[in-house]
Amino acid sequence: MVRRREARRATFTHLCTTLLWLFTCFNELNAVKIVKIVVPEIIQYGVQDAVVLDCDYVYGNNTSGLVVKWFFRNKARPVYQWIVSQKPQDMGILRGRVDLTYRASNDPLKMHRALRIVKPNTDISGEYTCVVSTFMEEDSRTKQMIVFVPETSFRLIQNKTDDDTVNVICAADGAFPAPNLTLATPERRLDGVSHELKLVNGRYSAVASVTLLDADLPSPAEFICTLRIPLAKYAVRKEAIYYPGPISTTPEMPTAADMQLAAAVGSKGTSTRTLIALVLLPALAHSLLVLK
After folding, report:
1. pTM above 0.70, yes or no
2. Beta bridge partners of 172
């Protein structure tokens, strides 16, 4: 009796295993699966005329209803859609910005899987999700792309005041994504630094400033400003030598905008709004020249 039960149990287990194997094989034969998604992590604005985002996949025997969709930042609405046997469509933020004639493969079930975005700008920075689906299966992958812009101007200014102090000011314009500014000496990062950040016409302007006592500084003193754009893995720096006392030097002659900025930071009654306005003047002027 016991042997019969064990035999039945073994037969039942074998049958279940066989059915599971057959079910898995059936799914594999009809599955669609993304094997590789290629999205450039970082590209610099203005360096290349177009960028390609690719989404390669394998498919089974049943490809009924095969559709490739790309989503930007969220999955609410696609920015690109290709239904096999139909023409690809660009939508939303990418409408009119995708080369719809581009072919990533000669395979008729893969040829329009990729996005070729023409003249990429900073507004298309973000996460891209590729979704490949049939009536039976669906698969998706997500990657981020950053279109970054280096600064158009980067200044390290020293403003000597009458009360034996110096204002050290670092300002940058025209960057994207948002830059970080740090002020330091070769020995340490400076404390008490104030920061301002403003977005104008899709580009960031940033200011870092600190007021120091001459009595607390060596002669000469070296100041270092470092600009970093972490999302773009980008960094540049400027250095300046300062001599405490009635005379100070900078590595370059200050411009009229530098003098206005230094005066604004040095004035105790200056509002944050006024300071930001002075920082943004070069950026606005540059934007107007570009528009012309």
Report:
1. yes
2. 154, 206
